[in-house]
Amino acid sequence: MTLERSFAIEHAPPASFAFWREATYAGRVHLLPPTETSLALVERVRALLIEALGDEPRLAQHRMDNDALFARLSPVRRALYCDTSFHEPLRALVRERGGDPAEVAFDPLRLRVVRSRGDVEVPAARAVYYPHRDTWYAHPRTLIAWWIPLDDLDEDETFVFYPERFAREVPNDSEVFDYDEWVRDGWELKIGWQRRDAGLTARYPGVIGEVDAGRAVGFACRRGQQLTFSGAHFHQTLPQASGRTRFSLDFRLVHLGDEAAGEGAPNVDGRSRGSALRDYVRTP
Ligand SMILES: [Fe+2]
Predict the structure, then answer these.
(1) 38-76, pLDDT tens digit by residue?
(2) Which strands make up the sheet holding 246-255, listed edge to edge?
(3) What residues does each domain of the chain span?
(4) 215 pLDDT more than 60
(5) pLDDT one-digit tens code per residue, 1-14
(6) How many whole angstroms from its chain centre is CA 59?
(7) How far is the CA of 230 from the centre of ligand 1 (A)?
(8) By the 8 A CB rule, do 243 and 3 touch?
(9) CA of 38 to the centre of ligand 1 (A)
(10) What is the CATH number of domain 7-282?
(11) Distance between Cα 235 and ligand 1 center (Å)
């Protein structure tokens, strides 16, 4: 595996939907331009944020405490995940990339909220900053994460990949994560539209001990761009102190044919139990 030496975030569109998937499973990360669909989605969500938080939603954290911010965002999170009118744009994004929505399943949109100084001021949010692989949370090796920023962001406001660990073990306790337990008490924990203390009580998989993860590769981005990467990538959200909250959207995609064929990224260290795939949204 030569990923560590050659790794750089790529900006050229892959030749086809199939090539993109294969490249993603091999650890390649693409940051592609905004499209009609991604920009429309961003605008729609920004309007919801303004409705929930007032003008300049990125500054709302200075106007209210974290509990109030969380409460106001809960209906937005719920709508993004559950409202089927927010599933259609995901299918459109797949089509824009040359794919057929009938061939994929997705874990719908989540709103990610990273407060300025949230790492020091909000203990319940600490899991946000854990370095991790998404596959440690019972997602399949075919998982492709699709991330869209709601604003232009500098490199120190986003997150980083550790390419040297893509295919190399990281000591972790992912065996603590059991998908059935995770959803047993309802989905509020999973989606985060209630239970703001969830971060203090839930068992999240994490790294064991101190790990030198090697080179960290970050990125700056523009509103509506689309970053895609394998759920097996070892990555980490950066704490930020820009004075503004960072909002982003993401969803997760699995190609059902690839999954059935045993394709996907290597699993070098994941031991979580159960499978989130059963609850992914299909296109009839
Ligand atoms: Fe992640």
Answers:
(1) 999 999 999 999 999 999 999 999 999 998 999 999 999
(2) 30-32, 226-230, 144-149, 246-255, 104-114, 281-282
(3) 7-282
(4) yes
(5) 456 678 999 999 99
(6) 23
(7) 10
(8) no
(9) 20
(10) 2.60.120
(11) 7
**Cα of 132 from ligand 1 centre, angstroms:** 6
Tokens of 15: 């030749």
CA of 203 to the centre of ligand 1 (A): 16
Could you tell me the CA-to-CA distances from 280 to 33, 96, 254, 258, 271 in Å, in that order?
Answer: 26, 20, 9, 15, 20
62 Cα–ligand 1 center, Å: 26
Q: Which residues pair with 228 in a beta bridge?
A: 30, 146
Residue 136 CA, ligand 1 centroid: distance in Å: 10
For 159, 185, 227, 229, the CA distances from 218, given in Å and listed in that order, are 6, 36, 12, 13
Q: How far is the CA of 125 from the centre of ligand 1 (A)?
A: 14
Residue 138: band (very low, low, confident or very high) from pLDDT cuts 50, 70, 90: very high
Tell me what pLDDT residue 184 has. Answer: 78
